[in-house]
Every structure is written in C-alpha cells, then in structure tokens.
Amino acid sequence: MIRKTKSQPTPEQEVIQRPLLELRDALLRLHKVLIDSERAVYEKEVGPIHSPNHFFQLLTNDPWFAWLRPISQLIVAIDETLDGDEPITTQSVDAMMTQSVFLLIPAESGGDFGERYLVALQRDPRVVLAHAQVAKRIGSGKRPV
C-alpha cells in the first residue's frame, strides 16, 4: 500500500493553522505540567513510582490518572486535524478552540476532570502558568470580525 504524503501548506493555510499549532504546543506543556504535578501527589499519597515503565502503566491504566485523558484526547484531535487529508479551515480551527475552552472554566465543566483540574490549579503555580498560556492561545485564535 502506498502512503500519500501530505503536501506543504500554502502561506494562507499556514496562517489559518498557526493558532492551532500554538494551542497544541501550549496544551502539550500544560499536559506535561499536570502529569508532573499529579505524579508528585501520587508519590506522596500512594508511594514511589519506581520506573518509567511503571509510570506509563499508571498513566494508561490507573484510575488516579484517568482524569487527565480529556487533555490527551484533545491533543490527539488537534493532531488529527493538522495531519488530516482535508485542508484546515477557519471553522475547524474555531471548533478546536471551542473544544479547548473547557480548560478555562474547570468549575463549570463539571465531572472528574473539572474538579481535579481546579484542585491542580489551586495546588501548583506551574499549572496556573501553563493554564495561562493555553488561555492566551485560545484567545489568539479569535479573529476580528
């Protein structure tokens, strides 16, 4: 089977997708900070994590870390949009930005994610700083009318 390679984006496409790329990078940083912060709490309350493999198993299978999956899934959705066969449109960028807003209002998103995210924001200043960068990127995705 021959795999098609994606063509280089046009300058117009680059302008359209830039806010999405910046949001993705900010979400990746936030995701890492949340994982590191949650690991510290886990090790304090449950016990040490002995190896990278052990930590990976916890991240993928342990209910303690399950609340982080919405961010992982959002990053994957952005990657699929960026890597898809269809050209990226302002509508697809707006849809991803809208989907990301749940990070800005964790108390209103409810559920396990909202509650645990709010706790992480109150507990760790690194989470607050990473959150602010995501918020800035979501705001930058809005174009003037």
Distance between the termini: 45 Å
- Sheet having the most strands: none
Return the string of H and E elements. HHHHHHH
The percentage of residues in β strands lies in: under 5%
Helix content: over 70%
- How many E-type strands? 0
Q: Please, what is the average pLDDT?
A: 86
Instruction: Round the Cα radius of gyration to an integer and report it.
Output: 17 Å
Number of helices: 7
**Structural domain tally:** 1
Q: Uncertain regions: pLDDT < 50 for 5+ in a row? A: none
Shape: elongated
The helix-and-strand class reads mainly alpha
Layout of SSEs?
Elements: H1 11-45, H2 52-61, H3 69-83, H4 90-100, H5 106-109, H6 111-123, H7 125-140
Helix pairs in contact: 1-3, 1-4, 1-7, 3-4, 6-7
Gist of the model:
The protein has 7 helices and no strands.
Question: Notable features of this structure?
Answer:
145 residues; mainly alpha
Task: Walk me through this protein's architecture.
The protein is mainly alpha-helical. It has seven helices and no strands. α1 packs antiparallel against α3 (69-83), α1 runs parallel beside α4 and α6 packs across α7. The protein is elongated, with a radius of gyration of 17 Å. The relative contact order is 0.17. The model has no long low-confidence stretch (mean pLDDT 86).
